[in-house]
Amino acid sequence: MRLPRFFGKKRGHRRTGSQAWGSFGEGLFYCVLLVAGLGFAGLLLSGAAAPEWRVNHEFLETPCTIIGKGLARYASQEADSAGSFTNKWQPCLRLRYRVAGALHESWSTALPRSSRADRPTAIAQLAAWRLNDELTCWYDPADPNSVVLERGYNWWLWLLMLLLPGALIVFGGSGLVQAIRVWGKSEEHRAASAGLPEMLDPMDHSPSEAPDHPGVPICDDLINSPGTILRYRLPIESPESWTLLGLGLFAMLWNAVVIVLAVGAGLDLLGGTIDWLLFALLVPFVVVGIASVCVFLRGLILATAVGTTQLEISAHPLRPGEQYDVLLGQGGSGTFRTLTMTLELVEQATFRQGTDTRTEQVVVWKEQVNAWHDIHLVPNARFESRVRIFIPHDAMHSFTSEHNAVNWRIVVHGSPERWPAFSRIFPLIVFPSQIAPLASKERSHRSRQEGVL
After folding, report:
1. How many other CB atoms are found less than 10 A from the CB of residue 53?
2. What string of H, E and C letters represents the secondary structure of 32-80?
3. For 67-111, how does the pLDDT look when each residue is reduced to its tens digit (9 = 90+)?
4. Among 2, 90, 162, 201, which residue has the fewest nearby CB atoms (within 10 Å)?
5. How far, in Å, CA of 320 to CA of 398, rounded?
6. 400 C-beta neighbours (distance < 10 Å), count
């Protein structure tokens, strides 16, 4: 059995990563998230949620009598101002009650765990109960000596169980399923699985073709948005928008978990105690939460500060040998050192290398349409410029087949003064020349005549 390689074929000074190892690493990451979520959910269920649920559903009610009072001492986990550790105290009551006709006596804390305090405070709390007072208690049928004076739920604990382990299980499980489903597949397979247009996945689907031009993709999705000045507004290929949306959702969900943990830690502090396990869990979660917010805000500021780029075109689809007007609209604020527009022809080949499916793209022809320098933008306004593009007479038309594709596009490169440079892609469809079908018919007619002669 041949093991998968860490690297694929070398191309120049770059090695393409192995798709198999990439899928394995992705699956391992999601598997760790899933196991962590299941483990954390198991700890919460067995250590806190299950006992609390039993108290509220399985413990039986019975009258009881206070026959003794005392204080329970707990070793404090926080140091005082002198650096020494003091003890925490909690009121306790000794209760007498009947279970199936038999008398039982047992100690029970009179207040919840959050009521632990210093000794004078605990003594003052204990004075609220008097000997021989009649109370209602609940005992465990499986262990009658286990008795409580209060029932209820810690809402933050159950919310924590739903958010934190639930998020890890959902993210890890769905990611693991996706990683298994796309194991060894190319980006085109993944795009098809995400529901992207068929022309992005020539390996698995037959391309949508123009009626009179076999192999030429249709451009219905490129002419469904009218322009404000020219006829059509071109769509933009912007994976950054989906990345920004994903970062926002992750930051929101993660920080919701952080808030739940912080509320629980705050309730403990108000009660005079510190749950060090909760604080140890809270610290890394706060760090990740702050980092996720910073990354999201940086992406959001970059997107809003740079501004949107829009292109309008006078006609679509395009034809070789013809010229078309293009309107560039760039929003944002600040100064752009350069803003360039290029017309590009890209060849794409999809092939199999061993068990991997790979796709390579090469820009085989590129022409600079125009370049602008030192553009000063102001808020609530945008830079506009109208240019003209020319499709060469001998240009190859757009084409999509099972393993190959020829794509036309307009690329706008921007270099803002205070932000990273960006490139935004606007796809085009170029149909064959109008003369090509007539020439083909003439050649076919001439061949038939020669065959007859």
Report:
1. 13
2. HHHHHHHHHHHHHHHHHHHHHHHHHHCCEEEEEEEEEEEEEEEEEEEEC
3. 998 888 876 555 444 445 567 788 889 999 999 888 999 988 766
4. 2
5. 11
6. 22
Neighbours of 320 (CB within 10 A): 19
**Mean pLDDT for the chain overall:** 75
Q: Is the pLDDT of residue 319 over 50?
A: yes
Q: Which architecture does CATH list for 309-436?
A: Sandwich (2.60)
Share of the chain above pLDDT 90, in %: 18
Return d(Cα 34, Cα 21) in angstroms, integer: 20
Per-residue pLDDT tens digits for 217-251: 876 667 778 888 999 999 887 666 667 777 887 88
- Give the pair of three-digit tokens for residue 439: 């020439």
Judged by DSSP in three states, 447 sits in helix
User: What is d(CA 433, CA 439) in angstroms, rounded to the nearest whole number?
Assistant: 10
Which of 313, 271, 302, 290 shows the shortest CA–CA distance to 429?
313
Residue 8's nearest CA partner among 351, 346, 362 is 351
What residue type is assigned to position 376 of the chain? H
pLDDT at 179 over 60: yes
- In the chain, ranges of CATH 2.60.40.640 domains: 309-436
Tokens 């609390």 belong to 52
Cβ neighbours of residue 234 closer than 8 Å, sequence gap 6 or more: 222, 311, 312, 313, 316, 410, 426, 427, 428
Tokens of 133: 């007072």
- DSSP one-letter string for 378-397: -TT--EEEEEEEE--TTPPP
**What percent of the chain has a predicted confidence (pLDDT) above 70?**
70
Q: Which residue shows structure tokens 């034809």?
A: 319
